[in-house]
Amino acid sequence: MPDSETAHTTSLDRDADFQRAFAENEREVRMQTGRLACLLVVVLMPAGLLLDTMLYPEFLGRFFLYRLASVILVSVIWFLHKTEFGRKHYRFIQLFIVYIPCLFMTMMIWDSQSPDSPYYAGLNLVLLAISAVGHWPLLETVLSVAGVILMYMLFALARVLFTGVSEPGITFGSNVYFLVVTGIIVTAGNIMYNRLAFREFTLRFELDRNRKRLADALAELEKTNERLVELDRVKNRFFANISHELRTPLTLLLSPLETLLHGPQRSVNETQVREWLNTMYVNGLRLLKLINDLLELVRLEAGKVDVVREPIDLDGFLRGLTSEVKQLSQDKRVRLFTLVSPDLGPVMADRGKLEKIVLNLLFNAIKFTPAGGRVEVSAKRDGDQVLLSVSDTGVGIPRDKQQFIFSRFWQADSSSSRKYRGAGIGLALVKELVEAQGGTVSFESDVGIGTTFYVRLPFLRAEGIAAEPAPTPGAAATAAEQKAEVPQQDATAKWLADLYRRAELFPSIPSVRESVRPSEIPAAGPQPKVLIADDEPDMLRFLRSQLIGEYVVLEASDGEQAVAKAVQFLPEVVLCDMMMPEKDGLQVCRELRQNVVTQSIPILVLTARADEETKLAVLAAGASDFLAKPFSTSELNVRVRNLIRGYRFQREVARQNKVLEQTIQQLKDTETQLVASEKMASLGRLSAGIMHEMNNPLNYIKTGLYVLRSKEKSLPEHERAEFAETLRDIEEGIGRVQAIVSELRRFAHPHAGKEETIEVESLITSALRFVSHEIKNSAKVRLELLPGHLISGNRNKLLQVLINLLHNSVYAIQKKGYSNGEGEIEIASSMSDNVDRIVVRDNGIGIEPEHLNKIFEPFFTTKDVGEGMGLGLSICYRILEEHGGRIAVRSEPGQFAEFTLELPRKQV
Question: What CATH number does the domain containing 372 carry?
Answer without folding.
Answer: 3.30.565.10
